[in-house]
Amino acid sequence: IKSAARFAEDFARNVLNFRLTREKTSASGLPIKRLGTLLTSFQALVYAIAQYEEGIATESGPIANYILGSTTFSIVTTFKGSFGITLVNDLPEQGDQKGLLADLEGYEPLPERTIKSFMDLVESSTQEDSLKKNLVKIRKRAASGYRNFLLALSSTETDNVFEWGRPGHENSKAVQLSRLDVLKAVEIANKT
C-alpha cells in the first residue's frame, strides 16, 4: 500500500487513504450499499466543513460552486489484500476566486484547510470534551454531516485508518478509529 504522502506527490493533489479492516472471522464482504453511503456522507461532510472554513456555514441550501469544485473527491485506486480506497481532490486553480491569496504567507488552500479540519475532527472522536467542542465549532450542517458519516462508518463494522497526504510534505498524518471508537463518537454526536 502506497502511503498517502507518496500518492500526494505523484498526483500533486491532496490524498486521503481510507483503510477499513473487518474481523477475519467475518465471511461476508463489505456491502456496496454501505460503502456508497459512507462515501456519499464523507463528500457531504467535506462540503459542509469547507463552508465552515470559508466562514459561510449555512444550515441548509446550496453550497457555492467554487467550494464544490475545490473539495470534490474521486476514487483513484483501491488497496490490494485489504479493503481500502485512495481518494484525491484537485488543488484550486490559480485563476479561482482565492488564487491571489496563495501568495500570502501562511495561506492554506481551501482543500487543505478542509481536510485538516476533517482529520482534527476524526482525531478528537476518542475524547468526549474535544469532540463536543469541535462539533459546536464547525456549526450545525457540518456537525450533522459528521454524525451521518459516523453512522455510515459504524454500519461497515470495521476498524478504520484515515491517512492524509499533501503535496510538498514528506510525512502523512494518520488517525485510527476502532469500531468501538466510532460507536462512542456516535453517542457523543447524538448528545451534542
For this entry, give a set of tags:
192 residues; alpha+beta; 5-stranded antiparallel β-sheet; 7 helices
Characterize the structure shown.
This protein has helices at residues 4-11, 32-53, 65-70, 110-124, 128-137, 139-155, 179-191, and strands spanning 14-21, 73-78, 83-89, 159-165, 173-177. It is α+β, with helices and mostly antiparallel strands. It has a 5-stranded antiparallel β-sheet with strand order 2-3-1-4-5.
Précis, in short:
The chain is α+β, with helices and mostly antiparallel strands and 192 residues long. The protein is built from 7 helices and 5 strands. It has a 5-stranded antiparallel β-sheet with strand order 2-3-1-4-5.
Regions with little confidence, pLDDT below 50 for 5+ residues: 92-97
| Overall pLDDT | 88
List the secondary-structure elements in sequence, H or E. Answer: HEHHEEHHHEEH
Number of helices: 7
Distance between the termini: 37 Å
Trace the largest sheet across and list its strands. Answer: 2-3-1-4-5
Helices and strands, with pairings:
Layout: H1 4-11, E1 14-21, H2 32-53, H3 65-70, E2 73-78, E3 83-89, H4 110-124, H5 128-137, H6 139-155, E4 159-165, E5 173-177, H7 179-191
Antiparallel strand pairs: 1-3, 1-4, 2-3, 4-5
Helix pairs in contact: 2-4, 2-6, 4-5, 5-6, 6-7
